[in-house]
Amino acid sequence: MLIRSFQPSDEPAVIALWQACDLIRPWNNPQLDIQRKLAVQPAMFLVAAADQRVMGTVMAGYEGHRGWINYLAVSPTERLQGIGRQLMQAAESALKAAGCPKINLQVRDGNDAALAFYERLGYGVDPVVSLGKRLLADDSHTADV
Ligand SMILES: CC(C)(COP(=O)(O)OP(=O)(O)OC[C@H]1O[C@@H](n2cnc3c(N)ncnc32)[C@H](O)[C@@H]1OP(=O)(O)O)[C@@H](O)C(=O)NCCC(=O)NCCS
C-alpha cells in the first residue's frame, strides 16, 4: 500500500469509498469538493492505494493559522489495520512541513467510532463550539458541514 496524492483517475473509486463510508451528505457534492480541492493545495489530498485500488483518503489543508482535516475514510473491509493512522500521519507530516502549528477537525454528532480513533492518535476535544455559514449553496440544502 502506498500513500500518495490524489490523481484524477482516482475520482470514481474515491467517491465510491466515501459513499461506502457514509461520508456524503446531500449538501456536499463530492465531485465539486474534489474539484475545489484540486484548486487549493492539491498535494494535501491523499489516498491510500494498492495499484489503482483506493483503500482510504484524507483531505488536509492549511490556511495560515490552523490545519484542517476532512474526508478521512478507510474502506469498511480494510479497517483496524492501521491505514487510518498512516493517512493521518502523512497528513500531519504534510501540514507540519507547511509550517502548520495545530490541526483542527470536526466530527459529526454521533460518530463515536471516529472520536475513539482520533483519541487513540492523540487528539483531544477542544472547548469550542463549531459554527458554520454557507457561502455557496451547492444545492437546496444550506446548513451543515
Ligand atoms: C475512522 C476510520 C478512518 C479509522 O480507520 P482505520 O484504518 O480503521 O483506523 P486504524 O486501524 O488506523 O486505527 C488506529 C487506532 O484507532 C483505533 N480505532 C479505529 N477505529 C476504532 C473504533 N471504531 N473504535 C475504537 N477504536 C478505533 C484502533 O484500534 C487503533 O488503535 P491502536 O493503534 O492504538 O491500536 C474508519 O473507521 C472510517 O473510515 N470510518 C468512517 C468514516 C469516518 O467516520 N471518518 C471520520 C470523519 S470525522
From TrEMBL:
The keyword Metal-binding does not apply. Transmembrane segments: none annotated. Pfam families: Acetyltransf_1. CDD domains: NAT_SF. GO terms for molecular function: acyltransferase activity, transferring groups other than amino-acyl groups. Keywords: Acyltransferase, Transferase. NCBIfam families: PRK03624.1 (NF002959). This is GNAT family acetyltransferase.
